[in-house]
Design brief:
Layout: E1 18-23, E2 45-53, E3 62-69
Length: 81
């Protein structure tokens, strides 16, 4: 899995959206409703968009998943901050 920043840092002091690439068709990851994290800075991430390229990786396909930070107010009580 590889990924990196796809936008400049947000002005609210939080990291910008980031991306991850997966082998195969992983567009269903958006329907799972999962949160990723926390990262080293305590930020949780949520998948926002997914783009599938069937021609990539010698025909195996590749899915680019864009993830964005979750605002602390959106975290439910079961998530430790």
């Amino acid at each position: 899995m590889r990924g990196g920043p796809v936008a400049a840092d947000l002005k609210i002091g939080r990291p910008a959206n980031r991306s991850r690439r997966y082998t195969g068709d992983r567009r269903g990851i958006l329907d799972e409703g999962s949160l990723w994290g926390p990262d080293a800075h305590g930020v949780f991430w949520r998948p926002l968009r997914a783009y599938f390229d069937a021609e990539a990786r010698d025909g195996a396909g590749e899915t680019l998943v864009i993830v964005g930070p979750v605002h602390p107010d959106e975290l439910h009580a079961g998530v430790v901050r």
